[in-house]
Design goal:
Elements (H helix, E strand, L loop, with lengths): L1 H22 L1 H8 L1 H10 L4 E4 L6 H4 L6 E4 L6 H8 L4 E6 L8 H8 L2 E3 L4 H16 L3 E4 L17 H9 L3 E7 L1 H4 L12 E5 L11 H19 L2
Parallel strand pairs: 1-7, 2-5, 2-6, 3-4, 3-5
Antiparallel strand pairs: 6-7
Helix pairs in contact: 1-2, 1-3, 1-6, 3-5, 7-8
Length: 233
């Protein structure tokens, strides 16, 4: 299973590159990229479901209102799973080192991933402001506010950069509970196990209603935790 998932990475990226001359970089990525998660889900017996999307306001569902998706982070499979299941194209905020990973970095650059230099605070803040302009211009973004994958399946403390971005951009935050990654591919292993992935979407959070960044972060964390608890059997 792990070998199949690994082989599908270069195959998917090559497919994206072949589509670029016809569709352009971003459209090529979102036309071909979601097939990675779907093929891995099929071959590795990992059904992927999305719940709660139909309850969102029509402006969000139909892509007229850009949003920032914020999810818990249990597995290295979480990003491709979200790319495969979310009905709207959404890019990631990623550390700049990702762009140097063969195939993965190439695909990320084609998708328009926003890279941030975490080791340089001034550059990171400039990147966040530039990202806010892109979001206001219509780009949807996915952020894992924990900053890294959980080693236990429990949520880690949230970093504040994503909430500064949300306040700067002035767009709704959509809380997501991404469940199953810790059982399918936990941190510290390369072995993919059969299991299900459930992505549950919560109600939008308006950053303007929480002028204090800590209060905004706590509200989003509370909602993600509630989605996780409601979704677990």
């Amino acid at each position: 299973m792990t070998v199949w998932a690994g082989l599908m990475v270069p195959c998917t990226v090559i497919g994206i590159l072949l589509a670029v001359p016809f569709l352009g970089p971003r459209r090529a990525f979102f036309a071909v990229g979601p097939w990675y998660a779907r093929s891995v889900g099929w071959f590795c017996r990992i059904p992927i479901t999305l719940r709660g999307w139909e309850q969102l306001p029509a402006d969000i569902r139909e892509g007229r209102q850009p949003v920032i998706f914020m999810s818990n982070h249990e597995s290295q499979l979480d990003p491709p799973v979200l790319i495969g299941v979310l009905p709207l194209p959404a890019v990631y905020i990623a550390k700049k080192e990702v762009k140097y990973i063969p195939f993965v970095g190439w695909a990320a650059m084609l998708a328009g991933v926003i890279f941030i230099d975490r080791r340089d605070r001034d550059r990171a803040m400039r990147s966040i402001h530039a990202a806010a302009l892109e979001i206001r211009g219509g780009k949807n973004v996915v952020i894992f506010p924990e900053g890294t994958r959980s080693a236990t399946g429990r949520m880690l403390p949230f970093k504040k950069g994503g909430f500064a971005l949300a306040q700067d951009a002035g767009v709704p935050i959509l809380p997501l509970a991404t469940l199953g990654g810790f059982q399918v591919l936990p941190r510290g292993t390369a072995r993919i196990r059969p299991g299900r992935y459930d992505v549950v979407v919560g109600a939008p959070v308006d950053p303007a209603a929480y002028p204090e960044r800590d209060a905004l972060a706590e509200e989003v964390r509370r909602r993600i935790r509630a989605l996780i608890e409601e979704a677990r059997p």
